[in-house]
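Following up on my earlier thread - several people asked me to post the actual chain instead of describing it. Fair enough. Here it is, all 137 residues.
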Amino acid sequence: MSAARAALDVPQAADRVWQLIGGFDALPDWLPYITRSVPGRGGRLRTLTNAEGGVIVERLEAFDADARSYTYAIERAPFPVTGYRSTLRVVDLGPAGSRVEWSGTFTPDGVSDAEASALFEGIYRDGLTALAKTLAA
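Reply from S.P.:
Thanks for posting it. Predicted structure:
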């Protein structure tokens, strides 16, 4: 099992950040890589389309509005991993703002642990950078 993680501190309040990213179907609102999200199964499934036209299907496994976090699993994607499970979380830092944490675990499939971890660390890091730009606008 491999893992990836990224975090970003932002000067905005945790509730404001969570309002933007906390909806399971909200990725296109802040992540330019995802151009479309179509909900299914009563909101517990999302079918994402990325900028290249690739399709990613993810299933919501846990949602905690009070803790400002949700966990999801990939059912289908063009990534070289299996057993992918990820959590997106917003932590209140008080007057300093908030920290957004994005982490995942997975089993590499056809690539090394280092390659799979680097792939998702890059996705998380780029996603959090895009989030910071959206919040600053």
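DSSP finds two helices and seven strands in the chain. That should answer part of your original question.
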